[in-house]
Amino acid sequence: MNRTTVQRLQNSTRAVFFLVGVVSALWSCLVPIVKQHAALNDGALGLLLLCLGIGSIIGMPLAGQWVGRWGCRIVATGGLALAGTLLMPLALLHDVPLLAASVFGLGMGLGAVETAMNIQAIDVEKQSGRPMLSGFHAFFSIGGAIGAAGPQVLALVQAQPWVSVLIGELGIIGLFGAAWRGLLNHAEPDGGPGFGLPRGIVWLLGLLTCIAFLAEGAVLDWGGVYLSGERVGFGIAPGWGYAVFATAMTFGRLTGDHVVAKAGPALIMAGGSLCAALGFALVVYGPNAPLLLGGFVLIGLGCANIVPVLYAATGRQSVMKVNAAVAAITTMGYAGILAGPALVGAVAHVSSLSVAFLLLAALLVFIALNARLAR
Question: What is the enclosing helix (H) or strand (E) of 74?
């Protein structure tokens, strides 16, 4: 494959990761609008959001099967089209059953395109002959930042939420149209496997992915609560914890491919997980505000490249076909995102958030102990 073709594959992969980040952020901005339109209380909103998770967990293994039959291009196109199209009704609907069906479809679309793009990313990295997964995942973060900022800017001129969605959808269509030709279109020779339950090393890789996503989700869901609760005495605004974490993670992923190439994936996985574990310890025990916020920075830097390295290792294993294995660990990872807030909350209810964060630090050490899997 010539250099121009490989470059097109790389750019298309970056573009679709970026677009998935945009769609996810636009949905995040719509959540309070949906709650207001449908007059939902917190409990009802939680059930509605559960539809997103159920749709994603169904869409991910299905996407692994579909990629085997039709290739990444068709699955990514269908998933992104479904997710992007459903943003508009979510900005306008008031009927709860219709909202639930739309959120379920959004979850299925996002689950499908995320699985397809990680399969493509692994293939493109192999064809490129150098680490690239961290950089691909960085574009998801960049897309998320831009997708979240756009509606806030438009809100300053009192634009309706559907206007933000429309502009976002037009941008998605334009960028995806330019990227479409660079998506892989080959299927498995035998049509690919059906649903593949993780087994052997894939099961362990999925468990480690689940832990990494659990740690990331804990900062998103509980970092602000922790700063405004148990650590309120430091006077840090609740949003600062996630802000410095997300900034550090984006920086870590933008530089991650170079670092992985120099140090090797096993060392990055071990060092990153220990760095994140130290970050949680600093968040709990830091004696002043700079060290506490430094803990969030270490969590972001440490977690930045764990998941990309685990996906790369999934692409090298031979126990399962890559598309089925990627679908399996993506589903397990997303299960960590879904279950994480409830698990952390349960530990905090029985003990405290400090204890929950220290348990996450211990789980990150477990990742470090299994870093050999990344070789």
Answer: helix 72-92
Identify the CA nearest to 136 among candidates 21, 268, 303, 289.
Answer: 21
Element (H, E) at 147: helix 133-155
Equal CATH topology for 3-180 and 201-374: yes
At 265, list the tokens: 């994936």
**Residue 243 to residue 360: CA distance in whole angstroms:** 20
CA dihedral 188, 189, 191, 197 (to 10 degrees): -60
pLDDT in 10s for each residue of the chain, 375 residues: 677 888 999 999 999 999 998 998 888 888 888 888 888 887 788 788 888 889 998 999 999 889 988 999 999 999 999 999 999 999 998 899 999 999 999 999 999 999 999 999 999 999 998 999 999 999 998 988 888 788 878 878 888 888 989 999 999 999 999 999 899 887 765 555 555 678 889 999 999 999 999 998 888 778 888 888 888 888 887 778 888 888 899 999 999 999 999 999 999 999 999 999 999 999 999 989 999 999 999 999 999 999 999 999 999 998 898 888 999 999 998 888 877 777 888 888 888 889 999 999 999 999 999 999 988
Report d(CA 122, CA 133) in Å as an integer.
Answer: 7
What whole-number distance in Å separates Cα of residue 274 and Cα of residue 295?
A: 12
DSSP state of 320: S
Helix axes 289-303, 239-263, angle to 10 degrees: 40
Domain ranges of the chain: 3-180, 201-374
Fill in the amino acid letter for 294: G
Instruction: Return all residues near 344 (Cβ < 8 A) that are at least 6 apart.
Output: 218, 221, 222, 353, 356, 360
Amino acid 91 reads A
Is CATH 3.40.190.10 the classification given to domain 201-374? no
The topology (CATH level 3) of 3-180 is Growth Hormone; Chain: A; (1.20.1250)
Reduced DSSP (H G I as helix, E B as strand, rest coil) percent helix, strand, coil of the chain, to 5: 85, 0, 15
